[in-house]
Specification:
Strand order of the largest sheet: 2-1-3-4
Strand content: 15-25%
Helix content: 25-40%
Order of helices and strands: HEHEEEH
CATH architecture of the largest domain: 3-Layer(aba) Sandwich
Number of strands: 4
Mean pLDDT: 84
CATH superfamily of the largest domain: Glutaredoxin
Number of domains: 2
Radius of gyration: 33 Å
CATH topology of the largest domain: Glutaredoxin
Low-confidence stretches: none
Largest sheet: 4 strands, mixed
Length: 160
């Protein structure tokens, strides 16, 4: 004769909890295995593109600290469409050999905004006094500003 077993409410509650816990573990394990299977199908192709450091754009606050003894810095507002011609000339200049190095400084970049003003001003050795009104070509020689050109025609002739 088989004996019937009676469970208390606490035992029934514990059995329900264990069943729910086991069900959740099985569902989570199922999702994990499905994710592993999908990831192993190479949905995404890996590329071995190596990043490169971009040296042609600099911050205006560092223009006197570059390692070259002599170089140009073209400070230009990239959001101004009128600068397209000068940027093209600068690009052609950079392709020449035996030239003075040319760097760009974008006046619309957040770290360069303190140097943008309503009137231009520069000091040979103190970069904190540098203020630029518009596109400017700065020639730096031995850590000092040697030339400061704002006229587009003069900038163009220096870059030819």
């Amino acid at each position: 004769m088989k004996r019937e077993r009676y469970y208390t409410e606490e035992q029934k509650e514990i059995q329900r909890f264990v069943k729910i816990l086991v069900s959740l573990i099985i569902i989570i394990l199922g999702f994990y295995l499905l994710t592993q299977k999908l990831n192993n199908k190479s949905v995404y192709k890996r590329t071995d593109n190596k990043g490169s450091i971009q040296y042609s754009y600099i911050y205006l606050g560092t223009i006197l600290n570059l390692s070259d003894s002599e170089y140009y810095v073209l400070a230009v507002d990239s959001q101004d469409v009128n600068n397209t011609y000068l940027l093209n000339e600068a690009s052609m200049y950079r392709q020449k050999t035996n030239k003075i190095p040319l760097y760009y400084a974008d006046l619309s970049f957040e770290l360069n905004k303190p140097f943008k003003a309503n009137s231009s001003n520069y000091n040979e050795t103190n970069i904190n006094e540098l203020k630029l009104k518009k596109t400017t070509l700065i020639r730096v020689k031995n850590g000092k500003i040697a030339q400061f050109v704002e006229k587009d025609e003069e900038i163009e002739s220096l870059l030819k």
